[in-house]
C-alpha cells in the first residue's frame, strides 16, 4: 500500500513492465495490504458469548442478583464451626490439608448475632462457610470495636482466610502500629497493603476482593499461584498480588496441593470483631 502511494516507485514499475503484468502486480500488493489492514469495523465485533445479565445491588455494596449471600444480618445458617481450622506453620498446614475431606460432622458456628452483625465469640473458634469456593469475588464488611488499652496485633484481630489458607488481615490499623505485613489489608506476612485505608475503630469498613485460586497439576506441581486484588473501603490495597503459599504465622510459606474449592474461614483471634453484609460471587 505504501509502495502504491509512492509516485517514483509507481513510475519506475509502469515503465519497466507491460501493462497486464503491472496490473496483476498491483492487485497482488493490494490484496496483501487488505489482509494486514482490516478496514471493515464489523470484522472485529464479537457477539458470542453474551454475558449473563446481572442486576446490580440497589445500594453501593449491596449484593448483585447472582451473589451467594453468606450473611445478611439474620443468622449463621451458611456457616459452621471450622473443624480443621488453618495452620500457623507449614507443618501445621500440611497436617490440616491432609485431613480435608475426612470431616463428617460439624458443630454449629458459636459466634453471636447482634444488631445485624455476626460477632466473634472469643474461644468459640474460627467459623467457615458450609460451601466451598475457588475463584471468587467477595464483599465483606467488618468493624473493630473501640477497645481502649489494646494495641498492635491485639486490637481487633481477625482475618478472612480465602480457601481456608490465604489470609487478608482484619485489624484496627487506624491508630495503633504493628508490623506492616501484619496490618489491616495485608496478605498476612506476605504482602503489605499499598496504602493504609483504615477507618477508626467503631466504624464499618469494607473489603472487596477478587481472588484467583492456585492451580496444581495432577502430580501436585504448582502451575499457577493464587492471586488477590483487594480494595479496602474502596481503595486499592492489593494489586494482583501472587501469594507464595498459605499465610502462616511462623516460617516461610510454600505451596502444598489442595482441592480446587475450600471454605472461607473467619478467624477467632480473641477479639470481638463484627462482620456483616457478606456476599460472594463464584468466578
Ligand atoms: Mg488475623
In CATH's first tier, which class of the largest domain applies?
A: Mainly Beta
Counted by DSSP, the helix tally is: 3
End-to-end Cα distance: 45 Å
- Secondary-structure element order, N to C: HHEEHEEEEEEEEEEEEE
What fold name stands as the CATH topology of the largest domain? Jelly Rolls
User: What's the structural domain tally?
Assistant: 2
CATH superfamily of the largest domain: Exo-inulinase, domain 1
Instruction: Average the pLDDT over all residues and give the rounded result.
Output: 91
The description of the largest β-sheet is:
8 strands, antiparallel
The secondary structure category is alpha+beta
What percent of the residues sit in helical stretches (DSSP H or I)?
10-25%
Got a strand count? 15
What is Rg?
Answer: 28 Å
What is the 3D form? globular
Show unreliable segments.
1-16
CATH architecture descriptor of the largest domain: Sandwich
Bound molecules: magnesium ion
Beta content comes to 25-35%
Amino acid at each position: 500500500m505504501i509502495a502504491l502511494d509512492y509516485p517514483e516507485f509507481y513510475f519506475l514499475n509502469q515503465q519497466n513492465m507491460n501493462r497486464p503484468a503491472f496490473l496483476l502486480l498491483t492487485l497482488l500488493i493490494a490484496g496483501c495490504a487488505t489482509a494486514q489492514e482490516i478496514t471493515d469495523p464489523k470484522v472485529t465485533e464479537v457477539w458470542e458469548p453474551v454475558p449473563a445479565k446481572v442486576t446490580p445491588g440497589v445500594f453501593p455494596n449491596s449484593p448483585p442478583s447472582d451473589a451467594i449471600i453468606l450473611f445478611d444480618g439474620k443468622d449463621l445458617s451458611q456457616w459452621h464451626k471450622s473443624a480443621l481450622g488453618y495452620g500457623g506453620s507449614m507443618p501445621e498446614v500440611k497436617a490440616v490439608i491432609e485431613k480435608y475431606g475426612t470431616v463428617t460432622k460439624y458443630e454449629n458456628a458459636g459466634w453471636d448475632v447482634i444488631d445485624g452483625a455476626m460477632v466473634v465469640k472469643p474461644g468459640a473458634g474460627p467459623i467457615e462457610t458450609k460451601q466451598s469456593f475457588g475463584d471468587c469475588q467477595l464483599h465483606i464488611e467488618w468493624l473493630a470495636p473501640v477497645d481502649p488499652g489494646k494495641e498492635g496485633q491485639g486490637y481487633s484481630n481477625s482475618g478472612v482466610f480465602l480457601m481456608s489458607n490465604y489470609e487478608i488481615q482484619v485489624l484496627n490499623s487506624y491508630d495503633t502500629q504493628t508490623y506492616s505485613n501484619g496490618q489491616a489489608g495485608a496478605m498476612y506476612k506476605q504482602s503489605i497493603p499499598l496504602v493504609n485505608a483504615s477507618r477508626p475503630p467503631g466504624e464499618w469498613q469494607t473489603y472487596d476482593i477478587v481472588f484467583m485460586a492456585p492451580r496444581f497439576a495432577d502430580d501436585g506441581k504448582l502451575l499457577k499461584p493464587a492471586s488477590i486484588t483487594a480494595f479496602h473501603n474502596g481503595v486499592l490495597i492489593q494489586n494482583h498480588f501472587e501469594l507464595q503459599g498459605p499465610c502462616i504465622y511462623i516460617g516461610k510459606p510454600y505451596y502444598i496441593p489442595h482441592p480446587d474449592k475450600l471454605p472461607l474461614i473467619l478467624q477467632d483471634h480473641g477479639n470481638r470483631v463484627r462482620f456483616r453484609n457478606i456476599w460472594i460471587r463464584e468466578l
